[in-house]
Specification:
The structure holds 2 protein chains of 2 kinds. By secondary structure, chain A is of the alpha/beta class. In chain A, about 65% of the residues lie in helices and about 10% in strands. In chain B, helix 5 (about 125-150) runs antiparallel to helix 6 and helix 5 (about 125-150) packs antiparallel against helix 10 (about 265-280). Chain B is elongated. Classes of the chains: A alpha/beta, B alpha/beta.
């Protein structure tokens, strides 16, 4: 992420260069300022020529105006560097988050809030560094050159303490950085502990655990307070070093000047100029640098590191194979989350042809969703083959694969926009008639009417739409596509049994392959084949066949509902 | 205008002696700082005189040392005061929020921002006040010092200050608008990202990550525009502020120059005048501190708002009872109306009804989790809860089961076994010691941990609020059996959507629109078409 950040900044080299050019103008008062004040006194007021004195000071004022103008331009131009950098960073992170294939690590609302916060830190810190580090560079250089031209004899007395202070400061930096990072972490842990307890107040009350909850928060609060003080000690040391580095040259200058003045090597103007350079230009710039480096740069690094963790860079090679038909052939497929873990799918062989309707049933947590990921090519199997139209499905040209195979997961994706925009997400070509028909087929017509038609607007986070209603919209969205394979991965979990039945029938009547990863066992009764996953070798067959041959299947059916003859619609195909 | 938070801030200031120490330290350091320009002027005059005077140099060094050491002490003292005050506020606030219990009058996110954000702001009150005082003293001191050099310098300087204040104020108003616009757009991008992240599997399966990233990033140009606006305003401000100091400096320098000519001032005094002009301007830079003070007061008011919310009255639970629960004419505003209900000890009761019928509210008042508005709840014994979506608390997975109890490892393990989740937990990266945040738990696994948490407390009454909804029916039946074994003879109240569960219950409580529509066994109620439609969805 650091490299990306730097390369983004380098990409705006022009902006940075323009910024530096204006900085040169900003440095003009620092270069001439001390000398002009010195001359005004030396040749003007002290020499009894007030007009000359005033004129020299007016020149000082004119340069100050030029400097302020330069500063104005620097700030106005800052946006040209910082804002595009932020845009690039946000773009990179959003793409990283959305392309991250590991579904188990999905950021939630608070993680997104953290991302936003860190991006803002990077933005502010970049601006801060550009302003301060640049100011230090320009001002110090200008002032030192100015100093060298007026009081060359004393230049080493000035340069050495400054360099010494900067070196010492550099040596202190790592420990300062470490403490700063600890403080940031302590801050995050406090927010986390508070967040966990306060979002779980119901559970705290149910556990009568107010005391433990309080002590969890208080522990983090206490650690955070201590970390803050630790940082302050480091900061105090840093401030002292910088203050010494800034003040020592002035003291040395004054202490060593008398003999030089007495011998005529230094004029009054030169001494005045030197002190003005040091106290008005170099000293403030040094303090600015110390402030920036210790707080801003540290925050910048921490933020970039956090963003890196939130959105790892993905590199994937898209496949280019073209399937010859719309059939699935699975041969001896085995898949596990890690080489040590018990495989989720073991030795599965299965053919799926258009018209097939497969239900996948089994206990929770057994990995039924893995089937969906294998069939959609999101994950390749560890052993065996998943062929779609004769080609390994994960190597099929992405556009072909995405159009041919549609997955509806349990958690629905709705975004802010009109209902029409949401429904045409996967089929941008669909007409209003297509959409209305799809909505009708999945039983979402009353919902569409309630929302106010296709032009109705949806808010964030499916606001005003229940979880079940959101699922209906997601189902209609896929119904309207031309996908030949539809996989419902508990996509009807928030619907009541009757609505679920209607949806499954609608998809079954559509041409192609339907795979239902079942939330309720009634889904198995409607399918023409059932795949039972129970951790061991998968069982495959019709409902009747499995009832006769599989004890587990019988147990599943019995546990599901001992009175199912009375309330369950019998399989209709 | 006194705000409700001011009294709280006053208490923060008065809490201990440290603020006085900081003030004393600031007084010494500021005095040193104020004497430096004069000491420097003397030293320069000494140098210009071509003669080294030890006392002059020592005086300059002494003042500089006073300021530098004072500043260093000040940094540590200020951090210590702020962090202590913040911690004190955070602890008080979280204790009160916990005491307010469930349901909390403050939304979770809001409460968190009060604890993390507002307490941090309010904790800075001492340092903000002292910074303002230092700036004021420095400015006044500088004017006095200028007057001591030459009264004309002081007059010239004082005239320029109001102008400075005016210029800086216009800036503050402009920025507030830009900042608001920027934050709004930034919030919009975040909200879009949250939506997209929720639908990540859909996006991945459809291969539309790039397109959806574009959708999330759509408001970005507006963000850049608002950002550029902020920089432009900043630039204007810098331009004015950048002109301000030199303008004042030039005026002071010209005045000082004439002073030199008239013999009132030495060349070194010109530097002193320049130094005091810069010091005197320090009050101008305090506008952010004034804003900080206002923010501090606003934050303190938000904290006081919570602390001033009276705690609800909660009845004490009788312990070691038989486990019966009785509700008499219980109403909860908007959820339950005049509910009469008796659940005898040892009964397995199922609560059924459509969504919004008041099932969860009934479950909550049964065990005293939330208060009732009218009526009476009598329960004889401790109540344990398990929920559909439990919030897992505590540092580790193991601790989340024993949360709020002193259960040892064995008890935690037994509870996990009974809840059918032990096999899952031992396969986690660090087993029971896995931090909650690092444990990849599904909804069903979290539910079973929540169940284990209820089992470990060994309550007389167990309330399961849809606590097995994510489990498939086989696992649910196993859990059910294990519960009967682990907690024999306990009263069990189960909120459920499943007919199979209702069929196993001794007593079914059928709720409709916050009222009890019927009680009896599943078989008795099954004849009613309305009852059947609760499970079939009415079609």
């Amino acid at each position: 992420m650091m490299r990306f950040y730097l390369s983004t900044l380098a990409g705006h080299r022009r902006g940075v260069l323009v910024l530096l050019a204006w900085s040169a103008l900003e440095g003009v008062p620092a270069f001439f300022g001390g000398r002009l004040v010195g001359t005004a006194v030396d040749r003007g007021f002290a020499a009894g020529d007030p007009l000359a004195g005033v004129l020299w000071l007016l020149a000082f004022a004119a340069l100050a105006i030029a400097g302020a103008l330069g500063q104005r331009q620097v700030f106005a131009r800052l946006g040209h560097v910082v804002e595009p950098m932020r845009d690039a960073l946000v773009t990179r992170i959003v793409q990283g988050v959305l392309k991250d294939p590991t579904h188990r690590r999905t950021p939630d609302a608070s993680a997104v809030a953290m991302i936003t916060r860190h991006v803002e830190v990077v933005r502010d810190a970049t601006a801060g560094v550009l302003v301060q580090a640049r100011a230090l560079l320009v001002t110090t250089l200008a002032a030192l050159i100015g100093l060298a031209t007026t009081a060359a004899a004393l230049i080493w007395l000035v340069v050495l303490p400054i360099v010494a202070a900067l070196v010492l400061f550099g040596l202190l930096l790592p420990s300062l950085a470490r403490r700063q990072r600890d403080a940031v972490m302590a801050d995050e842990r406090t927010a986390e502990a508070t967040g966990t307890v306060l979002t779980g107040l119901r559970d705290v009350a149910a556990c009568r655990a107010a005391d433990e909850a309080y002590s969890d928060i208080a522990t983090q609060v206490g650690q955070q307070a201590r970390a803050t003080v630790t940082v302050a000690w480091a900061n105090a040391l840093r401030a002292t070093v910088i203050a010494l580095g800034g003040f020592a040259p002035i003291v040395l200058l004054v202490a060593f000047a008398p003999p030089l003045v007495a011998s005529g090597q230094l004029t009054t103007g030169a001494v005045l100029a030197a002190v003005v350079y040091l106290s008005n230009n170099v000293n403030p710039a040094l303090h600015g640098l110390a402030r920036t480096t210790s707080t801003v740069v540290m925050r910048l690094m921490v933020a970039l590191k956090r963003l890196q963790e939130a959105a790892p860079q993905q590199t994937d090679e898209p496949g280019a194979e073209v399937p010859s038909n719309g059939e699935f052939v699975l041969t001896d497929v085995t898949f596990g989350w890690s080489p040590d873990a018990e495989p989720v799918v073991r030795g599965l062989s299965l053919d799926l042809r258009p018209g097939d309707h497969l239900a996948v049933v089994g206990p929770s947590g057994i990995g039924k969703s893995t089937m969906a990921s294998l069939l959609t090519g999101l994950m390749p199997p560890d052993q065996g083959r998943v062929l779609f139209g004769g080609s390994p499905v994960d190597l099929v040209t992405p556009t072909i694969r995405h159009h041919a195979i549609a997955l509806i997961p349990q958690e629905t994706y709705l975004f802010t926009g009109t209902v029409r925009e949401n429904l045409t997400l996967l089929a941008p070509w669909a007409t209003d008639e297509d959409l209305t028909e799809a909505v009708h087929k999945v039983g979402a017509k009353p919902l569409l009417d309630r929302l106010g038609g296709l032009d109705a607007a949806l808010g964030h986070a499916g606001e005003g739409v229940s979880a079940g209603e959101a699922q209906l919209l997601a189902l209609a969205r896929v119904y309207v596509t031309s996908a030949g394979v539809v996989i419902l991965d508990e996509a009807t979990s928030h619907l009541d049994p009757a609505a679920e039945a209607r949806v499954e029938r609608a998809f079954a009547q559509r041409d192609g392959i339907l795979v239902v990863i079942a939330h309720r066992l009634s889904s198995a009764l409607r399918a023409n084949r059932v795949l039972v996953m129970d951790g061991g070798k998968p069982l495959l067959g019709t409902h009747e066949h499995l009832l006769k041959t599989s004890a587990l299947y019988g147990q599943l059916m019995l546990a599901w509902d001992p009175t199912h003859h009375e309330e369950t619609p019998l399989p209709n195909r | 205008m006194a705000k409700p938070g001011d009294a709280l801030l006053f208490r923060v200031v008065r809490r201990d002696h440290r603020p006085w120490l900081l003030m004393l330290n600031a007084a010494v350091a500021t005095t040193g700082g104020l004497l430096i320009p004069a000491a420097l002027a003397d030293a320069v005059d000494m140098a210009l005189g071509g003669k080294f005077v030890l006392f002059t140099m020592l005086w300059l060094l002494g003042m500089a040392a006073t300021e530098i050491i004072g500043d260093a002490i000040g940094i540590v003292l200020a951090a210590s005061i702020t962090s202590r005050a913040t911690a004190w506020l955070r602890n008080r606030l979280s204790r009160h929020l916990l005491a307010l219990g469930h349901p909390s009058p403050f939304a979770a996110g809001d409460a968190v921002s009060r604890v993390t954000g507002d307490c941090g702001n309010a904790g800075g009150v001492v340092v903000t006040l002292i910074s303002l005082a230092i700036a004021a003293v420095t400015s006044v001191g500088s004017v006095v010092a200028l007057a001591l050099l030459d009264w004309r310098l002081a007059v010239v300087f004082v005239v320029s200050v109001p102008l400075a204040m005016f210029l800086v104020r216009t800036h503050m108003q402009l920025t507030a608008d830009d900042v608001l616009a920027y934050q709004e757009v930034s919030g919009e991008v975040s909200a879009r990202l949250v939506d997209a992240v929720t639908g990540k599997r859909t996006i991945a399966a459809a291969g539309i990550a790039d397109r959806e990233a574009g959708r999330v990033l759509q408001p970005l140009p507006k963000l850049a525009e608002a950002g550029a606006g902020m920089w432009r305003t900043q630039a204007k401000m810098m331009w004015r502020a950048g002109l301000l100091l030199p303008a004042v400096e030039v005026v002071v320098l010209v005045t000082a120059g004439f002073g030199v000519m008239a013999g009132r001032l030495s060349p070194g005094d010109v530097l002193a005048a320049l130094g005091y002009a810069a010091l005197g301007m320090s009050i101008v830079g305090q506008v952010p501190q004034l804003t900080a003070l206002e923010r501090t007061r606003a934050s303190a008011t938000r904290i006081a708002e919570v602390l001033d919310t009276p705690l609800p009255e909660r009845a004490e639970t009788a312990t070691f009872g038989s486990g019966s629960v009785e509700l008499r004419d219980v109403s909860v505003d908007g959820a339950l109306h005049g509910v009469h209900l008796t659940i005898p000890a040892g009964t397995f009761a199922a609560v059924v009804g459509r969504s919004g019928a008041g099932k969860s509210t009934l479950a909550a008042v049964l065990g005293g989790l939330s208060p009732v508005d009218s009526g009476e709840v009598r329960r004889d014994g401790e109540v344990g809860y398990a929920f559909e979506r439990p919030a897992l608390l505590g540092a580790t997975v193991g601790r989340s089961i024993g949360y709020g109890t002193d259960a040892d490892e064995v008890e935690v393990r037994d509870a996990a076994v009974a809840a059918q989740v032990h096999d899952v937990l031992i396969r986690l990266p660090q087993g029971y010691e896995t931090p909650i945040a690092d444990a990849p738990l599904s909804g069903g696994e979290a539910q079973r941990i929540g169940l284990a948490r209820a089992i470990v407390r060994d309550p007389q009454v167990l309330v399961l609020d849809d606590a097995t909804a994510s489990l498939d029916t086989v696992t649910e039946a196993k859990v059910d059996k294990a519960l009967t074994t682990a907690l024999p003879g306990r009263t069990r109240v189960v909120v459920t959507h499943r007919a199979a569960t209702a069929a196993r219950a001794d007593l079914v409580v059928w709720l409709e629109n916050g009222r009890v529509r019927g009680t009896g066994t599943h078989q008795e109620l099954w004849d009613d078409e309305d009852y059947r439609s609760v499970f079939t969805g009415g079609e």
